[in-house]
Recover the amino acids of this structure.
């Protein structure tokens, strides 16, 4: 991505560049008004294609060839290959982790240990630790996050709150981990050194997560979950349905260990999925027989049950209605809607880049920076604009890093100022945009819409404000001559 060229179109005016953005925002707003939470089922995807069509018309009027647009769309789609494959494996993993009893065991342990009053701040801390160790917010939400969502649902906690806590913790760890791709990409784009970037980023990131934990502590104390879920009844129902064994936790521990050892996420998730299927045959033979529709366990029955869990929707019936809603997984097929959304978002972003709209918007924002604070504010605004229009956090880091690196140097500012700002504004806000790859992913994996968790993803929207606060009061704004 670092070597990708930002397309410039001198004939395109700012007004023309913004036309597709305004059209998309208006269309999406009306679409959500009409369809509500069902907008992500397909209509939002088509709206993104309509936005791309508007951008293409603007491009044709400005002499942008059709071939360039197709080439940029292809480049954008190619960049999402890894994300799409990860989504498919996450769907497979959740299926086998359900039927093997891994997720029920995690929920069972959580119900016995976690008190509702501390559940939300504890969720933030747990996800922060796991994400810091793995360097991946996506892997964290796909494993620990799913379990915490299940526990939250079981104790009657609003799922938007739980998802907000999970995402807040996951993105803190993602930002601060040297294993994270975005944490490596941001300093590479800005010309900073990795560990200098991490140390400098701690100044804004640590206060943000502390405020987030305090906020969730108070939110948790205000939640009255008494009577909303009979914990004893739920625990009994889980025990009756699954063979609960702490040996099952070897599977998620193995996946975490693989990621810590810098194993590629795709490989780690595939191994986790396969191990989940093997453990399902060992620990939950009765459930596997029901899924396979067989009377006795043999290789064919085991194969059929595992493949069903990996690929299609699986439901586990219990004596508790709450658990019946909880213990179901859609396998790889359940991720196809999210993949569809990502593909359509990349079409819109590709056309916007091809006609030069992204470059025009960023250049205009840069021209408004007549002070150090306005330079930081312009950087934040550019990251947000690219996250909305290009629908990808990596593009937000790459494009903004490229556009602003010279401006920071001209003002005598060390490159870690830029790398910190684009992480504070680009990486974390991506999960707050429904049609962004990150927003679509987190919503699809956790089963909670962005509109539900948006308000509670406190860390994610606090981070850009924190970086602007530091800039406004000239706190830890390092100059080029000061490398300490």
């Amino acid at each position: 991505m670092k070597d990708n060229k930002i397309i410039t179109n001198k004939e395109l005016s700012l007004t023309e560049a913004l036309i597709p953005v305004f059209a998309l925002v208006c269309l999406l707003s009306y679409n959500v008004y009409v369809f509500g939470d069902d907008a992500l089922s397909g209509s939002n995807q088509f709206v993104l294609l309509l936005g791309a069509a508007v951008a293409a018309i603007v491009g044709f009027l400005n002499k942008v060839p059709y071939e360039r647009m197709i080439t940029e769309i292809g480049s954008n789609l190619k960049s999402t290959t890894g994300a799409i494959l990860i989504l498919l494996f996450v769907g497979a993993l959740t299926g086998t982790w359900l039927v093997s009893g891994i997720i029920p065991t995690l929920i069972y342990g959580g119900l016995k240990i976690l008190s509702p009053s501390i559940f939300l701040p504890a969720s933030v801390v747990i996800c922060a630790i796991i994400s810091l160790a793995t360097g991946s917010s996506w892997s964290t939400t796909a494993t620990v996050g799913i379990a915490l969502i299940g526990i939250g649902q079981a104790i009657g906690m609003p799922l938007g709150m739980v998802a907000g806590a999970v995402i807040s913790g996951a993105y803190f760890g993602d930002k601060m981990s040297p294993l994270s791709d975005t944490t490596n990409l941001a300093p590479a784009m800005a010309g900073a050194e990795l560990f200098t970037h991490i140390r400098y980023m701690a100044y804004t990131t640590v206060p943000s997560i502390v405020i987030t934990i305090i906020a969730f502590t108070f939110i948790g104390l205000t939640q009255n979950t008494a009577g909303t879920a009979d914990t004893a009844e739920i625990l009994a129902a889980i025990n009756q349905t699954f063979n609960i064994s702490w040996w099952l936790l070897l599977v998620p521990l193995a996946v975490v260990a693989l990621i810590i050892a810098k194993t590629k996420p795709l490989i780690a998730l595939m191994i986790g999925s396969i191990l989940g299927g093997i453990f399902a045959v060992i620990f939950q033979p009765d459930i596997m027989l029901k899924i396979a529709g067989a009377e006795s366990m043999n290789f064919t029955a085991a194969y059929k049950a595992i493949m069903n869990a990996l690929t299609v929707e699986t439901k586990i019936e219990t004596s508790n209605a709450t658990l019946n809603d909880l213990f179901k997984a859609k396998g790889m097929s359940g991720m196809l809607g999210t993949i569809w959304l990502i593909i359509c978002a990349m079409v819109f972003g590709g056309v916007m880049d091809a006609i030069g709209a992204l470059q025009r918007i960023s250049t205009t924002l840069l021209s408004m920076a007549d002070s150090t604070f306005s330079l930081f504010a312009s950087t934040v605004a550019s990251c947000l604009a690219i996250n909305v229009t290009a629908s990808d956090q990596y593009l937000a880091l790459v494009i903004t890093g490229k556009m602003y690196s010279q401006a920071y140097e001209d003002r005598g500012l060390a490159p870690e100022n830029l790398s910190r700002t684009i992480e504070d504004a680009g990486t974390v806000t991506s999960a707050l945009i429904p049609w962004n790859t990150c927003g679509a992913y987190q919503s699809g994996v956790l089963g909670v819409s962005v509109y539900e968790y948006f308000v509670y993803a406190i860390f994610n929207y606090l981070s850009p404000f924190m970086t602007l606060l530091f800039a406004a009061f000239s706190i830890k704004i390092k100059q080029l001559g000061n490398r300490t």
Residues 14-81+335-472 form one domain. Residues 1-6, 226-230 have pLDDT under 50 and may be disordered. The longest helix spans residues 194-222.
